[in-house]
Design a protein that fits this description.
This protein is mainly beta. It has one helix and six strands, in the order E-E-E-E-H-E-E. A hairpin with a 5-residue loop joins strand 1 and strand 2.
Length: 92
């Protein structure tokens, strides 16, 4: 919130003030696009290259997401980007 104070002064140096309140509220969600599907020759999570396999949240930079092939953007800036992996099935 911003409070802006206006002051008016007349020719006899009398003054009056009025205030304006300015509310700033970001109502635009960030956007994100994940990297494309990756098909890896191997038989386990150790064969994943680039961003390491992790079943707990990992914080990465926008540059790391971009290098992996993804994108993210926000009109107010990005505070954080995280990823977490889960595995289903077995080696095919």
């Amino acid at each position: 919130m911003v409070t802006r104070t206006f002051t008016v002064t007349d020719l006899c140096d009398n003054t009056a003030q009025a205030q304006q309140t300015i509310n700033i509220d970001d109502q635009t969600d960030p956007t994100i696009a994940a990297p494309a599907t990756a098909n890896i020759a191997g038989c386990g999570t150790a064969d994943i290259t680039g961003l390491a396999y992790s079943e707990t949240a990992v914080t990465i930079t926008l540059a790391q997401l971009t290098t992996a092939g993804g994108t993210a953007d926000d009109n107010c800036g990005i505070q954080s980007i995280t990823y977490v992996d889960s595995q289903t099935g077995t080696c095919r």
